[in-house]
Amino acid sequence: MLEVVRFVTKHGYSVLFGAVFVHQLGMPVPGPLFLVAAGALAAAGKLGWIAVIVLAVAACVLGDWPWYEAGRQWGDRVLHFIHRLAHDPESHDRRAKKVFNRYGLPILLVSKFVPGLDAVTPPLAGSSGTRRSHFLAFDIVGAGLYSVAYAGIGYLFSDDLDRAAAYIGRVGKVMGALLIIGCFACGFRKVARWYRHTRSCQALPVAEADPK
């Protein structure tokens, strides 16, 4: 963690932007660590907090945009390319589509916190025919939440960066747990609606048979 802080201290905003950008493109660069480092440097007055957030959001959106456009252009082939090294690519494709179809664009608000999900949501948004303006709006908000969360950890724990680094994994786990809870809640609502509809259909013939 200290090595990342030194690197960001030496190169400033440019390395922060580059690290977050290539992370969103799918490269094995620890974008969240660079955000934590930038937050710690902002707490020390070496970087500007607003500049850190604006640059990080811009990097996220610009990194997601090519994947969104690829989804619009090539559809499911992009998902298969992303999952090509998985044990069962088609199963991963189906699971990603199921999650996106259940939540729609709002999934972009939390997807960057969940490893794997962040890679597939932009192309899924593109392949689903989502308008560019709608994708951009949700992606900006999601990137803002992501940037503030990780840079905020660095800001709050600037005196204990090892502790800050430990919180990085926890954020992803919490968001993943919230997503699972949301899936169960959504499923429960659908079952409840189906049950109410079934009961109303069963009661309808009885109501018609009542004498006036």
How would you describe this structure to a colleague?
- The model has no long low-confidence stretch (mean pLDDT 83).
- This protein has one domain.
- It is built from 9 helices and no strands.
- α4 (49-74) packs across α5 (76-82).
- The longest helix is centred in the C-terminal third of the chain and has 49 residues, at 161-209.
- The protein is mostly helical and 212 residues long.
Share of helix among residues?
A: over 70%
SS summary, helix count: 9
How much of the sequence is in beta strands? Answer: under 5%
Low-pLDDT ranges:
none
Roughly how many Å is the radius of gyration? Answer: 22 Å
Estimate the mean pLDDT confidence.
83
- Profile the largest sheet: none
What is the CA–CA distance across the termini? 79 Å
Shape label: globular
| SSE order, one letter for each helix or strand | HHHHHHHHH
Number of domain units: 1
Condensed summary:
The protein is an all-alpha fold. It is built from 9 helices and no strands.
What descriptors fit this protein?
9 helices; single chain; 212 residues; mainly alpha
